[in-house]
Write a structure and sequence with these properties.
Elements (H helix, E strand, L loop, with lengths): L17 H9 L1 E2 L1 E5 L6 E5 L2 E4 L5 E6 L4 H9 L1 E6 L5 H8 L14 E3 L4 E3 L5 E6 L5 E3 L2 E12 L8 E3 L2 E3 L4
Antiparallel strand pairs: 1-12, 2-3, 2-6, 4-5, 5-11, 6-9, 7-8, 9-11, 10-11, 12-13
Length: 173
Amino acid sequence: MTIHTEHPFDTPDEDRDPVRRLRGRIGGAVSLWTSGEGIERVGLTVSSYLVATGDPGRVVGLLHPDSDLLDALVETGTAVVTLLGARDERLADVFAGVMPAPGGAFRLVEWEQTEWGPRPSHATSWMGVRLDPGSRRDVGWSVLVEATIEHAEVGAEDAPLVHRRGRYQHPTA
């Protein structure tokens, strides 16, 4: 058995798309977008999003075009966007589809149903959003969506979970 310092099947940097490599160096705070209710709940880990202040505030996100979350967001018109902390790595991986979750992703933590969708009960910073009609459009390999922030809660600041260059990072400040 050989122990690799890198993933043995990763494409070498020089063969990767330079725009994706550049985007990976920007990094971003990891969020969990959830929508639906009961057995119809779905979620997706998202680190490509932007929050714009204003009255009302807005959020713009890049979502996977084949994700169940995108379908639910379009159907329900609402979602919860939760900022994830360092302790939420496994939760982020499961909702990103890179780690299995026997019994389903929604069994990992306790959930509270809000009028915008489910949110992890331990989450202290989150927002309830409503999809802007007609805002969905293809951008690169993603779908850009715009939503109005109808509710925002800012709790005690946890150490943020940041994704950069394909890995989670734990900033100290």
